[in-house]
Write a structure and sequence with these properties.
The complex is a heterodimer of chains A (371) and B (330).
Chain A (H helix, E strand, L loop, with lengths): L23 H25 L17 H7 L7 E4 L4 H6 L4 H8 L23 E3 L5 H16 L5 E6 L6 H13 L3 E7 L2 E2 L2 E2 H4 L5 H7 L3 E6 L3 H16 L5 E6 L20 H8 L3 H11 L5 H24 L45
Parallel strand pairs in A: 1-2, 1-3, 3-4, 4-8, 7-8
Antiparallel strand pairs in A: 5-6
Helix pairs in contact in A: 1-11, 1-12, 2-9, 4-12, 5-6
Chain B lengths: L4 E4 H15 L3 E5 L7 H4 L4 H9 E2 L5 H13 L3 E6 L9 H8 L2 H4 L9 E6 L14 H6 L4 E3 L4 H12 L5 E6 L6 E4 L12 E4 L4 E5 L3 H14 L4 E5 L2 E3 L3 H11 L2 E8 L4 H13 L8 E5 L8 H7 L3 H11 L5
Parallel strand pairs in B: 2-3, 2-4, 4-5, 5-7, 6-7, 10-11, 10-13, 13-14
Antiparallel strand pairs in B: 1-8, 6-12, 9-11
The chains are: A alpha/beta (371), B alpha/beta (330).
Chain lengths: 371, 330
Amino acid sequence: MATKFETQNQDRGKVISSTRGIKSSTLIDLYYSMLRIRRVQEALIDEYHPADEMRCPVHFCVGQEAPPVGTCLHLEKGDYVFSGHRSHGYYLGKSGSLQGLFAELYGKSTGTNNGKAGHQEISDENVNFYSGTILVGMLAIAAGAALGFQMRGEKKVAVTIFGDGGADQGIVYESLNFAALKKLPMLFICENNGYSTYSRQEKRQGLCDLSGRARAFGVRARRLDGNDVVSVYRAAGQAIARARRGEGPTLLELDTYRWCGHVGPENDDHLEYRSSEELQEWMDRCPIVALEAALQDKHILGSALMADMEHRISEEIAGAFEFAKSSPFPRPDALLTDVFAERDWNDVVPVREYPETDYDYSQPESIPGPY
Amino acid sequence: MTEPKNLNFAEAIQQGLHQALSLSDDVFVFGQIVDNISGVFHTTTGLSDEFTNDRVFDTPVAESAMTGVALGAALVGMRPVLIHQRLDFMLYSMDQIVNWGALWRYKSGGKSGVPFTIRAVVGKGWGQGPQHSKSLQSWFAHVPGLKVAMPSTPYDAKGLLMSSIFGEDPTIIIEGRPLFTMSGIVPQEPYRVPFGKGVIRRSGKDVTVVALGYMVPLAMKSADILAEQGIYAEVIDPRTVAPLDEEIILQSVRKTGRLVIVDPAWKSFGVSAEIGAMVSEQAYSSLKGPIQRVAFPDGHAPTSVALEQLYYPDENHITKAVLASLQPEG
C-alpha cells in the first residue's frame, strides 16, 4: 500500500523522550494502533476520489495518531469517549467497528449509525464512543456522563477531546468548572494543532495557554508533546487512574499537527494559511516513525513483525471496504425512523386516564411578586 | 390507593418530583437554586433536604453546560430533570437542545437516546418584561425529536412531568407562572399522562376553541360568557404541543365547523399557525368560516402595567374572537 506521507530528515528517536518502564508488549500495542489508524486514513484518502462513494465530509487525523492511542490503551469498554470531528483515531482506539465505520462513510444501512450520521457524528454504542461536530458541545455531555458514573458509584471515566479551535468556546470553561466543582472522573484532551480550520491560534487567543486556562478553573493540567506517544501514554494513564480514584478531572494539552487539509482528502495548502516548511517540520516528527525508531533501537520491532502488522491491517481494511461496498443503502422508510423512541413509556409509573374533576376555572391567576 | 387531594400547580409538580425521586435512584433534579427554601416557586420545596444534595442540587449559572450535563447523564442511564426559573435563560442552551439532544437518537441510528426533562417556567405580569416572559413552545415543537408539554391543571402538571421523566425522549415542559397557585384534584399515587392526547374541557356544538397552558382557564371563562348568550364552545386542551393530538381537534371541528386557537405566545409563526394550517389541510370542507387566533401581539412584553394590560389577551378577547368566527362568510 502506498504511503502518501513521506518524512525526510526525521529526528529519529528524539520525539520519544523515554520508553523506560513501559512493557515491550505495550510499546508494540502503541505502535500497532497508530500504524493501523494511519493505514486506515491513507486507504480512505486513496479511495475517496474519484469514486465519490463516501459522500460525506471527513476530517482525517493523519499526523495526530499519538493522542488517541496513548489515551485509549488505558480505557475499559465501560469508559466513554466523546470526540469532536477529527474522530477516527479515537473511534478506532476505543475499538469501534472498522466495518461499521467504513459502511457508515458509504452511507449504508450496515453503518454503525445505520447510515444516518456519516463521518461527522459517528458513534459506536457497543464501545461507548460518541462524536459530533458542533465544537465542544461534547465536553458538557461528557461531564454529564461522568456525573452519572459518580452518582452510581461506578469507577468509569469519561474522556473528551477538543482542539485549540474549540478552546475558544465558552462551554469549555463551563464544563471545566463543573468538572472541578464536582471532581468528576474525566480526562479532557486538548489536541493543540495550532489551527482552527485556517485560523492560527495566535490570531484568536489573547494568551495562548490552554492548560493554564484549565488550571484557572481548578482542573489539574499538563502540556506535552502530543507526538510522543509514550509521554501521552504515561500522562493519560496517571490522569485516568486519578479519575478512577475519585480525585477529579485532568486536562492534557497535547501539541500535535494535522498533515491533511482541515477536511477532505485534498491538501488545502493552496489556501496559504500555513507554510510548507512548517508542515514538513512536523512530518519529520511523525509519531509513528519516531516510535518505530525507538523500538528498533530496542530490537523489539523487526522487519518481520512490521510486515506481519502491515499484512494484518491491509487485510482488515480490504475486508472493511468489501463489506461497505456490498452493503445495502438504507431503505426509503428509514427516512423518518428514530426521530423519537418507538416505545415512549416503561413500566415504572402506570398510565392513568384523565378523571372527571371539578376543576374551578374561575380561580384567579397568580401574579408574581418582584421575583 | 389513597384519596386524591386538592393541590395547586406548584405543589403537584413538587409531589411529582418527590415521587419520581423515590421511584428510581436514577432520577435527579438540578438547576439554579433548586435547593433553596424558595423552591423555584415552591416546586422543589424540601427535596434537597430529603434526597440530599447528591440528587437535588444547585448548579453554576451555566445553562448551556448544564443542559449538556443533562444529556450526558441521560445517555448513561440517569433520568435528569433540569429546571430553569425562566424560559428566557434556557436560550443559552439552544445548541445543546437543538444540535445535540433533539437529533441524538436519529443520528445514532436509533441505538442510543438522551431522555432528559427540562422544566421551563414562563413569567407573566408584574413587569416581568421582555427578557422574563418569553414562551417558545413553537420553537421547540418545530424541531424534530423534541417533545413539548404545556400543562394547564395540577393533574396534568404532575402526570406530564412523570411521563417526561420516565419516558424515552428529550422533553421540555413549559409551565406558565399564572397557574402556580391554582388548585385542582390530584391523585396521590404516581401516575402518567400520555403525550399526544388532548382533553375536552368542555363540550359544545357551536365553535371549537383550542387553548394552551394558562389560556385554558381564560377560554373556560369565555365559554361561560358565551353560554349566557346561547353560544356553546367546545374547549379543547391539547396538553402537549409536540406531539399534538390532531385527531381530537379535527373531530371537534368536523362537528362545529368553527375554530378559534388561543396560544400564550406571539401570534405570528407559532403554534396557532400550525394548528390552523393542520385543520385547513385535514378538515377544510368542515370549516364554515375562517379560523380565528388569539395570541400576544407581535411585539415584546412591556413592563409598564398600563401597556401590560393591553398586551395579554383575556377571556374578553377570546369571546370576541369566537363571535368573529361565527360571522357569516363574505
